[in-house]
Amino acid sequence: MSIMSKDKNYTVVEAPEGVAGHGFFATTLDKAVGLARKNSLWPLPFATSCCGIEFMATMGAHYDLGRFGAERLSFSPRQADLLMVMGTIAKKMAPVVQQIYEQMAEPRWVIAVGACASSGGVFDTYSVLQGIDKVVPVDVYVPGCPPRPEQIIDGFMKIQELVGNEPLRRRYSPEYKELLESYGIKIDK
Amino acid sequence: MEKIELLQELKSKFDRNIIAVDENADIYTLTISSVSVKPILSFLKEEKDYQFLTDLCGIHYPGREKELGVIYHLHNLVENKRLRIKTFVTKANPKVESVSQVFSAANWMERETFDFYGVDFVGHPNQKRILNVEYMDYFPMRKEYPLEDATRTDKDDKFFGR
What we know:
The complex is a heterodimer of chains A (about 190) and B (about 160). Chain A is α/β, with parallel strands linked by helices.
């Protein structure tokens, strides 16, 4: 990394561990791919309520999630890496969240932003799903009601950490298949 | 003035079906029998110009003999007059004739009242739950269920004072 930014007044992302030499840099494939993936995560903003508004602020110029590579939001799950569920999910909406998750291509991550997505929040009622982890596997939970943009960014950075360190064969492992089956999510391999 | 004439006309036409008349903030409230809902509402719409159904909702008063109620709010746009009509039914036989043929707005509002109170609207073209999940087997707005989600597995009673 220091090779790249020696004379510049900006920093680029940190390189993973590896062997550097004159004109080459050797690292594991996992880490190289992880580096590329984590700095270009395309989120799907599944914004339902107030947390969605905080996310709008996060995407704005002041807090700028685009700095982290998440500039290109997609509302199509087929083109997204990260499902950001932000807001209260009603029981009627739960199968829809699962359907959206199923349509995403591997590798995919889920972040539950806010108290309602994490656990139902204040709404412990007949109509609110008590946490989206009842229908999809969640990687990072961001608490808050609503969480400030800085907190959402912190959650995003934790996702980046997970993405950067993920082994390449994780999605084909039996544990992962078991996890998806426990949610009733179909795997089409 | 016109309101009192209207009441007298209704009284003479529907006599025994009008159970009570009340007034609150310039809006007359009629309590009527559940069988006369459609005739009275049709009469008010077609002949008395109460063409706007502002609201149709349900209510549950536990402890009364006729616990479930359906409340209609009508508005006469020509003379700017409002009318509230209440009708009560028992939980054992919660049938009220649907007014969706009279007012199209009543369609979804009756579905909502069915969804939350279990009032059966006879003659409704599509009486099924509108806001809740289809497999829900109770009527949430009746005052006989716990306030919290019964399917919740992770709440520890000792933290919540129980």
